[in-house]
Amino acid sequence: MTIEAAPRVLTLEEDEALAAFHVYGANGIIVEVELRLAPARRWDQMVVAGTSWPILRDWADAIAFDDGVPKRLLSAFEDPIPSYFKPIRKFYPEGHHTCFLEIDEAFTAEVGARAKAAGLLVSHIIPHTEPRRAPMLSDYTWNHTTLWAIKADPKLTYLQVGLADNFREQLDLLKERYPHEFLMHSEYMRMGTGAGDQMRRGGAPLIRYTTEARLKEIMDYCAAIGVGVANPHTCYLEDFHPHGNFQKEYALKEAADPGALLNPGKLRHYPAERSAPAGGWPAFLTG
After folding, report:
1. For a 10 Å CB count at each end of the chain, is N or C smaller?
2. Could you count the other beta carbons within 10 Å of the beta carbon of residue 17?
């Protein structure tokens, strides 16, 4: 919905809608979302653990990029991150790196066999139930991971990163440079629409915070070795994605919020104020 004297409803289809997401209410008001459904599957939950981070990391990556294995979730955690998940620590051995998965139940045995062949331990399986009920491994993934970690150790913070095909080299360099400050938490996501969708490597690594300057140094080093960084420690959209192109977001704001009334200042390179229409703004827009 636009912010005008006579509000309009705009319908954004497919990739057009991405211009309205993760803009924090700065370029319009989303009043309705329509989602395409996928075929329902019976998802088993699985925990795989190992004492070698490189082995677990590489195994998880191979499963993620195997399109023959239907999956809803694949998250990998460098030790000691799993120790922060207090309610489910009984699901895996202490001091192990872990991978949480949701796998179509028809492929659970195959994925388990591949884990064992790699020298890893399938430490816990939660069979599919309908309706689904706790415990849910997804409650400890993505940014839930960060919340569990900060609850255990308030000195921790995080970043959001994207990794390239040479992710092994990138992670090894980060671990070598910041051995006690950088803990990797990997997430895999399928992005895009139709035939153009693809699996991407990313994550929300935990960072042991000391100073703002040190945090910036880590982000700068990530950029220097080709690791994309989304900085969650800023109030400006452009600083969150420092190498992004925001022309689509600006164009939507121009169309939907011509007075720049929504979340002023959130877009660093967009005018904070626009000229009022003849006769001034209606009262419901100005309060």
Report:
1. C
2. 14
